[in-house]
Write a structure and sequence with these properties.
mainly alpha; 3 helices; elongated
């Protein structure tokens, strides 16, 4: 089946964006797991935020949460 039969570039864009979002989510979780935080509660809070708000939580952690560690 040709890509054109599926509606052009839209399915490809959906796959690429999904892969980027999943990669971002996994990278945030991996980084949280490897970092030492000031408290273990802080680490669990970030895990909960990233798990329950996948894209927003991952972006928030990458921009603001990475400075929480010691």
């Amino acid at each position: 089946m040709a890509l054109g039969a599926l509606g052009g570039w839209k399915p490809l864009l959906l796959v690429v964006l999904s892969a980027v979002m999943i990669g971002l989510w996994l990278a945030a979780l991996r980084d949280i797991g490897r970092r030492n935080f000031k408290t273990s509660l802080s680490k669990w809070q970030w895990i909960a935020i990233v798990v329950f708000l996948p894209i927003v939580g991952a972006l928030a952690y990458i921009f603001w949460g990475r400075g929480d560690n010691t």
